[in-house]
Amino acid sequence: MKIAVVTGGASGIGRATALALKQDGYMIWVADVNLEGAKSVAGEVEGEAFYLDVSDEISIQDLVGTVISGNNVPHVLVNCAGIIQAAVSPADLPQDDWDRVTNIDWRGTYICCREFGTKMAEAGRGSIVSIASIAGMRSVPLHAYGPAKAAVVAMTQNMASEWGRSGVRVNAVSPGFTLSPPIIEAIKSGARSEAALASQSAMGRLVTPEEVANTIAFLCSDKASAITGVNLPVDAGWLVAGSWETYGGVRASTS
Length: 255
Ligand SMILES: NC(=O)c1ccc[n+]([C@@H]2O[C@H](COP(=O)([O-])OP(=O)(O)OC[C@H]3O[C@@H](n4cnc5c(N)ncnc54)[C@H](O)[C@@H]3O)[C@@H](O)[C@H]2O)c1
What we know:
Helix 1 (about 10-25) packs parallel to helix 2 (about 35-45), helix 3 packs parallel to helix 4 (about 95-125) and helix 4 runs parallel beside helix 5. The chain has helices at about 10-25, 35-45, 55-70, 95-125, 145-165, 180-190, 195-200, 210-220, 240, and strands at about 5, 25-30, 50, 75-80, 125-130, 170-175, 230-235. The longest helix has 29 residues, at about 95-125. With about 260 residues, it is of the alpha/beta class. The model has no long low-confidence stretch (mean pLDDT about 95). The protein is built from nine helices and seven strands, in the order βαβαβαβαβαβαααβα. About 45% of the residues are buried. The protein has one domain (about 5-175, about 210-235): Rossmann fold. Nicotinamide-adenine-dinucleotide (NAD) binds near residues 14, 54 and 104.
């Protein structure tokens, strides 16, 4: 059976991805710093749960050793583990916070790609999808998160070229504002307005974790067999609609 490792699989987009890949017939290895959450999702997909802290190189290498010990080089790696940051000025962003976001969102994703991708390349096949963000594609007041996600896109392109001849495809997905637990909590607490977030996108709404997961599953599948090195936005048109604000916003529905 084909194996898919989903980091950050205990919640949100990672959990939805585990469910989508299960539908596609994969054995799911749910890896997360939240082990209880990982166990819960593993129960849902009849998979395995593992503790993983992507900010710790040893923890990643332990996971790789465990997965591969039975000669099980995974067919798919999805890098969903990530954290967000507060939208503050550089002066108000403690360097420790910058380091933590960068360590998890960029360095952790890099090491997971390096460790699993090298084994996949030796095996002559594999597909990696990393979760970047629209925040890495536009100017936003997220001085650690935005550049870290832009780095994930650059790294994806490099690794796609690195391992293309070895049969490993490497792609990224950039979600827009997605109704996963951190965004839902921000809306509930009043820190974010759902209407304001939705109004910025061409389609006038947020994205669901399932919509991101379905795109990831497509990129992992043979239907995407000639696609490598891309960064596919799943953003309900946030990237294209922003500049329309200068002209009073996107057109209202005509139906
Ligand atoms: N929700 C959005 O609007 C949105 C938009 C763009 C990109 N993203 C990205 O999507 C990914 C998933 O986010 P989500 O919205 O589902 O959030 P989430 O909080 O629901 O899921 C993130 C998961 O990552 C895990 N995690 C955090 N630090 C970790 C670490 N050091 N090691 C291992 N696991 C760790 C968490 O325990 C959690 O299970 C993240 O990379 C995030 O940056 C989210």
